[in-house]
């Protein structure tokens, strides 16, 4: 059997980042930068006030409290041509440009209006008080973001603030997902003997969207080699990757295996994990294809362990794996030696002691998706007799 780490290395190594594209910054949210962003403008673009108050000359307030005449008013988005003189004050609002001649701002809370045109300043302030210098946040030539940066909303805000209208990014992977089998029913009708309701494709489409991919649903393909070959070739031509489930076990004769064996460069693996031992990976005309096992829990686990990291690499993400923790196995995680690493679906919570605690899902069968659906972690239990209650275990979170 193939160790999980070897399978991951092989699959990830065969999925290089997609070529960069240039997009408008508003369309870049959630994508990963492929080139650094260098500021062409300063932020803020002018000296402005950090508070509502009065622009003053600090030297006038040495003997405060003192009354000053209010000679003008400046709101955010406007400016004044008035040059502040000694012994004067100008009413000013947060974000407004500092008037010429002023070197400080007194917060409105430290003042009291006297009539309509004078203000009482209660205490002195130093030069520069409540003043934001031009370029205090960003200077032209500053390297703001480097390749590999995920463009989160705050990054979009910075790009807008420096007028970086376009950026170079790795695009979202466009991923085809399909299921195969005459036994699959998805029209809501009654089940005939031997039929089951299609569920894997819906689950995988959701996992792909959660990964950040654009999903192209190719539907359910019946057990017809010519039809499946046509769909796979079309998917390979239109998409960046393909995800299927079922027909990858050793010894299976399945149309998926037959067709992929003929038209793709495939590697059929038995990975030393439970569940999700069978897995296939290869390319059709250079397009990666992930052949996941058909049991729903196995399909989910193999997606998380193998397909998701590779797809994230294709989209330029520097961190491929889910977040992981060392957790306390509250009830223990028993198992028997079998030469495999057991990937136990579990619920992880952070308790009052500051530690992550984990409890296994009530059922661990590879077909028991209902018992797994609410799990938020996978406990990695090495070969042996399991993890005793209260002992530590590595967990991979299924969120974040």
Give me the secondary-structure topology.
Layout: H1 4-13, E1 21-24, E2 32-33, E3 37-38, E4 48-49, E5 53-56, E6 66-74, E7 89-92, E8 104-107, E9 111-114, E10 118-121, E11 131-132, E12 143-145, H2 153-161, E13 166-170, E14 174-180, E15 184-185, E16 196-197, H3 200-211, E17 214-221, H4 225-238, E18 241-245, H5 255-263, E19 265-270, E20 273-274, E21 278-284, E22 287-292, H6 296-314, E23 324-329, E24 333-334, E25 341-350, E26 356-360, H7 369-372, E27 377-381, E28 386-387, E29 392-397
Parallel strand pairs: 6-7, 14-17, 14-18, 15-16, 18-22, 20-25, 23-26
Antiparallel strand pairs: 1-13, 2-13, 3-12, 4-11, 5-7, 5-8, 6-10, 9-10, 19-21, 21-22, 23-29, 24-28, 25-26, 25-27, 27-29
Helix pairs in contact: 1-6, 3-6, 4-5
Q: Could you characterize what this model shows?
A:
This protein is α+β, with helices and mostly antiparallel strands and 400 residues long. The chain folds into four domains: 4-17 and 172-314, 3-Layer(aba) Sandwich (Molybdenum Cofactor Biosythetic Enzyme, Chain A), CATH 3.40.980; 21-42 and 137-170, Alpha-Beta Complex (Molybdopterin biosynthesis moea protein, domain 2), CATH 3.90.105; 48-132, Molybdopterin biosynthesis moea protein, domain 3 (Molybdopterin biosynthesis moeA protein, domain 3, Beta Complex); 324-397, Beta-clip, CATH 2.40.340. Helix content is 19%, strand content 32%. The protein is built from seven helices and 29 strands. The strands form eight sheets. A six-stranded mixed beta sheet has the order 8-5-7-6-10-9, with no helix packed on it. The chain is elongated and about 95 Å long. The two termini are 30 Å apart. The relative contact order is 0.13. The model has no long low-confidence stretch (mean pLDDT 93).
């Amino acid at each position: 059997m193939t160790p999980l780490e070897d399978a991951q290395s092989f699959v990830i190594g065969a999925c290089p980042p997609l070529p960069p594209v240039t997009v408008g910054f508003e369309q870049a949210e959630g994508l990963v930068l492929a080139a650094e962003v260098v500021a062409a403008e300063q932020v803020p673009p002018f000296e402005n006030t950090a508070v509502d108050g009065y622009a003053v000359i600090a030297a006038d307030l040495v003997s405060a409290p003192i009354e000053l005449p209010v000679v003008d008013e400046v709101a955010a988005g406007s400016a004044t041509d008035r040059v502040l003189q000694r012994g004067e004050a100008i009413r000013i609002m947060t974000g407004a440009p500092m008037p010429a001649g002023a070197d400080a701002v007194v917060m409105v809370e430290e003042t009291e209006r006297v009539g309509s045109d004078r203000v009482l300043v209660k205490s002195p302030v130093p030069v520069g008080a409540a003043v934001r210098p031009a370029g205090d946040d960003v200077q032209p030539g500053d390297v703001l973001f480097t390749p590999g940066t995920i463009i989160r909303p705050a990054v979009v805000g910075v790009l807008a603030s420096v007028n970086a209208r376009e950026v170079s990014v790795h695009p979202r992977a466009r991923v085809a997902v399909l299921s195969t089998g005459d036994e699959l029913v998805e029209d809501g009708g009654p089940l005939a003997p031997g039929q089951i309701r299609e569920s894997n494709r819906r689950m995988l489409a959701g996992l792909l969207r959660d990964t950040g991919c654009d999903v192209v649903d190719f539907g359910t393909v019946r057990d017809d080699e010519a039809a499946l070959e046509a769909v796979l070739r079309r998917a390979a031509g239109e998409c960046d990757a393909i995800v299927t489930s079922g027909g990858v076990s050793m010894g299976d004769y399945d149309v998926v295996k037959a067709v992929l064996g003929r038209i793709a460069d495939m590697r059929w693996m038995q990975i030393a994990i439970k569940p999700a031992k069978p897995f296939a990976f290869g390319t059709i005309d250079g397009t990666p294809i992930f052949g996941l096992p058909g049991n729903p829990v196995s399909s989910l686990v193999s997606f998380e362990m193998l397909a998701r990291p590779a797809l994230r690499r294709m989209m330029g993400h520097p961190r491929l794996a889910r977040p992981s923790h060392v957790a306390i196995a509250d009830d223990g995680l028993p198992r028997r030696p079998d030469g495999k690493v057991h990937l136990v679906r579990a619920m992880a919570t952070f308790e009052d002691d500051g530690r992550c605690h984990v409890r296994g899902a009530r059922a661990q069968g590879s077909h028991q998706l209902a018992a797994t659906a609410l799990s938020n972690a996978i406990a990695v239990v090495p070969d042996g007799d399991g993890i005793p209650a209260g002992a530590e275990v590595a967990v991979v979170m299924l969120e974040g």
